[in-house]
Model the fold of this input.
Amino acid sequence: MGSVLHYNTAYHPQTDGQSERVNQCLEQYLRCAVQDNPKCWRRWIAMAEFWYNTSFHTAIGCSPFKALYKIEPNFGAMLNLVVSQYSPVSDTALEYQAQTELLGAQLARAQQRMKTYADKNRTERQFNVGEKVLLKLQPYAQQSVVNRPYPKLSYKYFGPYEILEHIGPVAYKLDLPSSAQVHPVFHVSQLKPFTANYSPVFSELPAVPDLLATKPLPTAILQRRLVRKGNSAVPQVLIQ
Done:
């Protein structure tokens, strides 16, 4: 099918923008559908999939169902069956190839239009090897590394770190500490020029917890209580 694997940089979801857009549409549909009864959201997954696959997409100029099967979806109406002669496999393959090329052109046109809108709010950034920069990381995405009580009020930038390599036109490899469990290649939008001033930033990345230690065992149960959850009581215990 001519699929190509592309690698994306850390904390840059725009690289896989099509998948992110699909998730956003499905979340919006489910949010509207289950507003009155949130517990029944699983019953609406099939309807959400049907809605998305049969909706007209301006990016490809048709619905995803037609893009995949080359025909419009049947919503339950009886079709008029017309007896026709047998179509050779070669004609079907040529038609499929022409439809695929048309969809590729539609997607390229839509991506260029979205890129033009996004470039209006971007600034040109270019760094050299050996230069020090500040790294922007989302605090709420670092809960597996370190737990902060108020992540939104924490500093957004870490560093400074030295640039080791220029990878591609918009990606750079940084000299991160050996204890960091973050991929060292970042998009240029996550970097900021470092100037020697008193801007509050973290001097080092959070330390990684030791997961190889022996699992601790509770010493004693200090307290018990019952918490109401819906129409049932859930027991909770306080462990030392």
About this structure: The mean pLDDT is 76. Residues 128-240 form one domain.
